[in-house]
Specification:
With 107 residues, this protein is of the alpha+beta class. The chain has helices at 4-15, 51-56, 59-63; strands spanning 22-29, 35-41, 93-97. It is globular, with a radius of gyration of 16 Å. The N and C termini lie far apart (43 Å).
Length: 107
């Protein structure tokens, strides 16, 4: 199963957007086929993995994709969260470039 860290690396090479400029949003699709962004994920790209997460699976298990999934997560909180652990409806992401998105100043 793929971790968010691996997905972010794949998305940055595909979209040519630097990882620190990549914005990840959960979205819902409306009836008129437009997308409504719901929540932006603020992930720490320099996060160190938890010891139990690293020791739990061997390289052989990861390579053969034999990691059991537990679909209970509603949102991503770490770059080491696995996509298979997210609820199926929450696996949709909208990717945006921070350098091309206008942000209103906070007042």
């Amino acid at each position: 199963d793929t971790t968010m860290k691996e997905l972010i690396a794949e998305w940055t090479t595909t979209t040519q957007i630097a990882p620190h400029n990549l914005m990840l949003w959960n979205y819902t699709e409306r009836k008129n086929m437009t997308m409504r962004p719901n929540r932006m994920f603020a992930l720490d790209l320099n996060e160190t993995p938890k010891a139990d997460a690293v020791e739990k699976y061997t390289e052989e298990i990861i390579r053969r994709h034999q990691i059991p999934t537990n679909e209970k997560l509603k949102s991503v909180s770490s770059i080491y969260d696995r996509i298979g652990d997210l609820l199926p409806k929450k696996r949709q992401f909208l990717l945006l470039d921070k350098t091309r998105v206008y942000e209103f100043p906070e007042s």
